[in-house]
Each structure stands twice: as structure tokens, then as C-alpha cells.
Amino acid sequence: MKSTLASCLTLVLLLLANLNSIAQSQPFKWPQGARMAISLTFDDGRGSQATKGASLLDEYGIKGTFYVVPSAVKGQLEAWKKVVDKGHEIGNHSLHHSCSGNFVWSRNNALENYTIDKMRAELLEANKQIGTLLGVKAESYAYPCGHTFVGRGKNTQSFVPVVSELFVSGRGWLDEAPVDPSYCDMAQLTGIEMDGKDFEQILPIIEAAGKSGQWLVLAGHETADAGAQTTRLSLLRKICEYAKDPANGIWIAPVDQVARYVKSERKKMGLPE
């Protein structure tokens, strides 16, 4: 009897494994026959994003994702309200932009001194303040500095599970590969830097992602003609023009919109959401 049950269990496990393998081998289907997706994202809630970056995207009817720190929004509240009115996504970038204390400017809010409970409370407070300021609920999160830990040494913990619980997605920073929609952890989307780059440097990344049917999440900071930690307006313009050309097969949309679509499609394919 035990032998029969064991054999049945083995067959079921093999069947599930085969079904999962088949699902993963299916090409991911993007909307309207697109070959890939692109999301343009910007961190910190810097003033130039509200006054220049969002306006440029508006020229092309493209919506971006702006991960903001509430205190930065307060400094240019009316400009950010206009960004929301235009339909751009507002994401959460923490309450204090907390990173490792190895960044001296973050020493007063060093992640090494955080606990999971403290991080959870601050993420909720940031969402509350964003809601009060802009009347929206932040459903996307970007890890400041790309750091996903709290504590130090043997007491170090990941707060990725907290982000997974509170948000539809979480995005990293300075990553090296686009998002694979059939496989990715939605709480750890990769973010590819576009600061300081020319279109000629970004185009090969777009083309490679298109060949693989991936989701390219580009990440930047200031939006201006030049400067440190700046996504050049000339680059943004060329990306928008390239993405809007139907011949290139690109779906360009905010992170929350793409993330929800990916989760829905993965459910249809029998893959983890």
C-alpha cells in the first residue's frame, strides 16, 4: 500500500514538474503583439523630474514611474500634483531614503541600525504621507541605493518580504540584466541605470531585451541636459521616439501597469505570481 501511494505521489510530482517546464518554455505574450516592455523610472522625487522629465514624457503621451520621498514632494507640491494629474505613476522610495551607513550622508538613517518592524512602519508612513500629499496610493517601491537589508552581521535580515507584502512590486538599482517576465520575483525587479548615458549606449540593451521578450526597467534621477546622476533629456526623447515607433514592437508603460499585467499572464501560464 505504501509503495503504491509513493508511486502515485512520484507520478503527480513528475506531472507538475512537466507542466511547470512547459509553462516556462512558452514565450511570454505582451499586449498588442509587442516584443517587449519598457518602464521609465525616476528616483527621489527630484524637482527636475516634475518640471522637465514628466513634461517631456507628456509630449509623447508616455507615462513614467516616479519613486518619491515625501519630504522632496513637499518642496514642489504643486508641480508634483500636475505630474499626478497627467497620469504618471507615483511610487514609494521610503521615508528617509535610508541606505547603508557606508554612505556617510545616510549615517543618521543607516540600514544597519534598522529592524524589520522599523522599516515596515516607515514604509507605511511614507505611503500615508504620499496619499495625503498627492491623493494616490503608491503600489510600487524602489529600494534606495538598491539595498534590501536591515541590521548587521548575524542579525542582518532582508526586508524584501515586507515589500512583497505591501507593494505590487519592488525595484532594485544598478542591475545588469532586464526583467524576465516569466521568472522574476516581483519584489526584486531589476533596475538598469540610464543616468549619464547616450541613446547609443542604451539601444543595444533595448534590442537585446526585445529579442528575449523581456521587460526593461530603466532607472534615473535628475532629468536635465547634463550633470551628476542625471538622465539626459536628449536620451529620454530618443527612447520615447524609438518606443513609439510601431515597427520596434515596444509596450512602454509605468511599472504598476506592467507588473499587474505580468502577474495576470503568469497566472494564466501556471507560473508563480
TrEMBL record:
Gene3D superfamilies: Glycoside hydrolase/deacetylase (3.20.20.370). The keyword Cell cycle does not apply. Keywords: Hydrolase, Metal-binding, Signal. Pfam families: Polysacc_deac_1 (PF01522). Its EC number is 3.-.-.-. Residues 1-23 form the signal peptide. GO terms for molecular function: hydrolase activity. PROSITE patterns: NODB. It comes from the Bacteria. The keyword Metal-binding applies. It is an enzyme of class 3 (hydrolase). Residues 36-253 form the NodB homology domain. InterPro entries: Glyco_hydro/deAcase_b/a-brl (IPR011330), NODB_dom (IPR002509), Polysacc_deacetylase_ArnD (IPR050248). This is Polysaccharide deacetylase family protein. It comes from Emticicia soli.
